[in-house]
Amino acid sequence: MNQQIVSHSIQEINHYNRVLEGNKRYVAKKMEEDPLYFKTLSKGQSPKYLLIGCSDSRAPPNELTETDPGEIFIHRNIANLVIPTDLNLNCVIQYAVEHLHIHNIVVMGHTCCGGVKAAMTQDSVGGLLDLWLNQIKLVYEKHADLIESFVDENDKITCLSQLNVRAQVMNIWKNPIIQKAWQKGNPVMVHGWLFRVETGYIEELLIDQHTPEEMCKVYALKFKLESEKQLSKHVSPTGSPKNNAKKRFQNMQRKLIEHINQLKENKIEDFDLETKEIGGFIESSKDL
Ligand SMILES: [Zn+2]
Q1: Catalytic: 86?
Q2: What separation in Å is there between the alpha carbon of 260 and the centre of ligand 1?
Q3: Is 56 a catalytic residue?
Q4: Which residue among 40, 44, 126, 201 is the one 20 to 30 A from 209 at the CA level?
Q5: Phi, psi of 281 (to 5 degrees)
Q6: Contact at 8 Å (CB) between 80 and 191?
Q7: Strands 202-204 and 49-54, sheet pairing
Q8: φ, ψ for residue 27 (rounded to 5)?
Q9: What stretches pass through the bilayer (predicted)?
Q10: Which secondary-structure segment (H or E) carries 73?
Q11: Known binding site for Zn(2+): residues?
Q12: Separation of 219 CA from ligand 1 center, angstroms?
């Protein structure tokens, strides 16, 4: 085997062992402070915060906020995105809100974010990654004038990082799990943070002057409470949910047919013109 490869492998193994040795030192230190620390930790968790952060190794939530294991429920992905169809993230949000009863959700972005930087260029970083970063490109496209007004390249990235956090906070507002929590009177708050890698400080971001309810009217879902579900089971046969649904569907069908007929009438002139043109073509084809 090449000498260089052997030397490189030894270095890698040493690095790997250093991480495991670090764990032994961590346990020893904790046990020295409190011999029951891990026994207490094993009894359960009741974190007060859900943090959605970037996977970047420079932005570890617990270290940055001087919090202990058990205090923050954490989900991390590239560029702290809240994609509505992300099954993994939705399970985390649902568990945090409905089972851990967390009332504070934080989206934490950071400066010098590789994901944000990559989304600003046209260079491909690979199939799935390009697809993932498209979510940031949407934010960039929407605010390109503002972002490009900055001369310094790092300022552009920082500006897009902030706008990205804002967009992800709003995605959480629109999430049905959060909409349901709000309707049930659970006051879930969503915060936006930007961690400045170059200073170590976290800055709270202003998300919007409007309330989430004003911003997300289109996404506001109405959920039936348990008491309402019970009531709907006891309505008379003529007003049963099944009959109502059938009537509503028939009404919808009538409206649809009227709507299509209306469209046809409005386009009748175009239709006639097209027919004449086609007819003319057929007539002229006969001469060939
Ligand atoms: Zn990042």
Answers
A1: no
A2: 49
A3: yes
A4: 201
A5: -65, -45
A6: no
A7: unpaired
A8: -65, -45
A9: none
A10: strand 72-77
A11: 54, 56, 110, 113
A12: 28
Question: Is residue 112 annotated as a catalytic residue, yes or no?
Answer: no
Question: Would you state the pLDDT for residue 220?
Answer: 76
The residue assigned the tokens 């399970």 is: 91
In angstroms, how far apart are the furthest CA atoms of the chain?
102
In this prediction, residues 142-164 reach a mean pLDDT of: 95
Among this protein's residues, is 196 annotated catalytic?
no
Separation of CA 117 and ligand 1 centre (Å): 9
Query: For residue 283, is pLDDT > 80?
Result: no
Strands lying side by side in the sheet with 72-77: 72-77, 49-54, 104-110, 189-195, 202-204
C-alpha 162/C-alpha 86 separation (Å) is 21
pLDDT tens-place string over residues 94-137: 999 999 999 999 999 999 999 999 999 999 999 899 999 999 99
CB 64 within 8 A of CB 200: yes
SS3 assignment, position 192:
strand
Matching residue, tokens 């509505």: 84
Question: Residue 163 and residue 257: Cα distance in Å, rounded?
Answer: 44
Q: What is the pLDDT of residues 188-234, one digit of tens each?
A: 999 999 999 999 999 999 887 666 666 667 777 777 766 666 655 55
Q: Which of 8, 58, 101, 248 is catalytic?
A: 58
Annotated active-site residue 216? The verdict is no
Map tokens 């490009």 to a residue.
Answer: 148
Two tokens, residue 152: 């310094």
Beta-bridge partner residues of 109: 194
